[in-house]
Amino acid sequence: MKHGEPATESNADYASENWGNYESIDLNAPQSGTWYITIYGYIDFENVWISADY
């Protein structure tokens, strides 16, 4: 996840550091503006959903 421009694997502002199916990133006071969420898989995956609340 990155503020202001799309994230890559090497320049994300925030990234999940867990292995598994239930990942999350929580920001308590996110900066205003546009946030980009990029999903990279280490193996093939399907049936993915993403949820964002503010």
**Number of E-state strands:** 2
Radius of gyration: 12 Å
Spatial sequence of strands, sheet with the most strands:
1-2
Biggest pleated-sheet summary: 2 strands, antiparallel
Class derived from helix and strand content: little secondary structure
Q: Gap between N and C termini, in Å?
A: 15 Å
Please report which band the strand proportion falls in: under 5%, 5-15%, 15-25%, 25-35%, 35-45% or over 45%. 5-15%
Q: Encode the helix/strand succession as letters.
A: EE
Residue runs with pLDDT of under 50 for 5 or more positions: none
Global morphology: globular
Helix content: under 10%
Mean pLDDT: 87
Helix count, DSSP H or I runs of 4 or more residues:
0
Describe the overall structure:
By secondary structure, the protein is low in regular secondary structure. A two-stranded antiparallel ribbon has the order 1-2. 0% of the residues lie in helices and 7% in strands. The chain has no helices and 2 strands.
Give short descriptive properties of this protein:
single chain, two-stranded antiparallel sheet, 54 residues, little secondary structure
Task: Kindly summarize this structure in a few lines.
With 54 residues, this protein is low in regular secondary structure.
SSE layout and pairing:
Blueprint: E1 2-3, E2 35-36
Antiparallel strand pairs: 1-2
